[in-house]
Design a protein that fits this description.
Layout (H helix, E strand, L loop, with lengths): L1 E2 L7 H10 L4 E2 L7 E3 L4 H6 L5 E4 L3 H4 L12 E2 L3 E2 L5 H11 L4 E4 L5 H12 L4 E4 L2 H7 L5 H4 L2 E2 L5 E3 L1 H7 L5 E5 L12 H5 L2 E2 L2 E3 L5 H4 L8 E5 L4 H12 L5 E4 L2 H6 L13 E2 L5 E3 L6 H6 L3 E4 L3 H5 L11 E2 L3 E2 L5 H4 L11 E4 L5 H12 L5 E4 L2 H11 L10 E2 L6
Parallel strand pairs: 3-8, 4-6, 4-7, 7-8, 10-15, 11-13, 11-14, 14-15, 17-22, 18-20, 18-21, 21-22
Antiparallel strand pairs: 1-2, 5-9, 12-16, 19-23
Length: 408
């Protein structure tokens, strides 16, 4: 990917970008819009009172009333709401309203990128994408203190991320409540469930039993609810706060999000937040380029043949490959891995499409085969690609992203 000084836009727009010192990355496929990281967003907006901040999520998400509870995560103060699906019809309104640069954000920074393309194609204003979206704020809030004053929410409970969690886990006055359905723990649960771990001061009350067992929870005590992805915990928090509980927090994105955090944002992993998995979890932000480049770590891509080749009928699975990885479908590990003649102490990293149970089951298979240094790239290939687009310091991994063999 190349960095350029905006040859595709007008002199006036280029001059305004230069004044704001906003880096703009363009390639043959990119639209002419810039990007800004969350760390400097408040300062950047304060420098130009003509700027307009647009939230392109649904109305429910913007108002913290979405039926998809995990997507209720507040909004940025001063933002104008324009549902991304309505942009073509509301372009005239934006043309009249917006006199300066337009900044666009969403939850996961995917819908906002599409919105930036639409706006940049239709209006003369400089368009700036807010990389990382609200998801990156909640997952890294300790490092983004300057942004906290901009985030407002109508939620009756508090959202917390990994760093906040680790500050609370030693507090004897805090009760952690696991609200995941009881069925997932049958027969010991899946490998993904076991890998999630738990604090000592934990109680399990399945969300389906919460109404009947609410009396077990102190109304004036600090409660931290968690589940697998954040949705059930948020629904449970609404039920508890509606019943008079006054101090309720929800682990943002649940255990799935927590396990994808780098060590600096989840320092209590394996300690106060215990887990007994015989393999290591490696977050994308902790991935060591030297280890991968020099070859001591073998990355095994366990996706299906179709997904690896880029020919899956489920097109969202066709996301290319990672340079240096070795493809071996999960259901072929036992049969095909011995042919590689690896030593049992050779480090192996398992990589799937995203963060689901397949990688965890594959890691367990490798451990059962006698391998002693097994790791999982949490978030998978798609998670790594997300960080390349949204996280400062991760852009160098773009050189490792290759098209699928079937697309070359």
């Amino acid at each position: 990917m190349t960095t350029t000084s905006l040859p595709l836009i007008s002199f006036q727009r280029a001059l305004l970008f230069a004044v704001l010192l906003i880096p703009v990355t363009l390639s043959a496929q990119d639209k002419p819009y810039g990007s800004v990281v969350l760390e400097v967003l408040p300062r950047t907006l304060s420098k130009d009172r003509s700027a307009t901040l647009i939230d392109v999520r649904s109305a429910g998400e913007f108002q913290d009333t979405s039926m998809y509870h995990a997507y209720n995560m507040g909004r940025l103060k001063g933002a104008v709401h324009v549902d991304g699906r309505e942009l073509p019809q509301r372009m005239g309104e934006l043309r009249q309203r917006c006199r300066g640069p337009i900044y666009v954000y969403s939850s996961h920074a995917e819908r906002s990128r599409k919105a930036c393309s639409i706006i940049a194609d239709s209006l003369p204003n400089p368009v700036v994408h807010v990389d990382g979206g609200l998801v990156r704020f909640w997952n890294g809030s300790v490092r983004l203190n300057d942004l906290k004053a901009m985030v407002v929410t109508d939620l009756p409970y508090e959202l917390i991320g990994g760093p906040d969690l680790c500050q609370l886990v030693d507090d004897k006055g805090v009760l952690f409540v696991d609200v995941r359905p009881g069925v997932i723990f049958e027969r010991g649960g899946t490998e993904l469930i076991r890998a999630g771990g738990a604090p000592v001061n934990r109680i399990h009350i399945p969300v389906e039993a919460l109404t009947m067992r609410m009396g077990e929870l102190p109304k004036d005590g600090k409660l931290v609810l968690y589940d697998q992805d954040g949705g059930l915990a948020a629904a449970a928090a609404l039920l508890l706060t509606g019943s008079g509980h006054t101090d309720v927090s929800v682990l943002f994105e649940g255990l799935d999000g927590l396990l994808q955090q780098p060590h600096e944002r989840f320092p209590c992993q394996g300690k106060d937040w215990s887990s007994t998995t015989p393999y290591r979890l490696v977050a994308a932000e902790d991935l060591d380029t030297a280890e991968v480049r020099m070859g001591p770590v073998m990355i095994i891509d366990i996706r299906s043949n179709e997904a690896y080749l880029g020919t899956s009928p489920e097109t969202w699975r066709n996301i290319g490959t990672l340079r240096g990885s070795f493809h071996m479908p999960a259901d072929r590990l036992k049969q095909d891995l011995p042919a590689l003649e690896l030593f049992v102490h050779d480090p192996i990293m398992v990589m799937d499409h995203g963060h689901d149970g397949n990688a965890f089951e594959a890691a367990r298979t490798l451990v059962d085969m006698g391998h002693t240094d097994v790791r999982i790239l949490t978030g998978g290939l798609s998670g790594l690609q997300w960080h390349v687009r949204n996280t400062p310091g991760m852009a160098h991994w773009e050189r490792w992203m290759l098209p699928a063999p079937g697309e070359e």
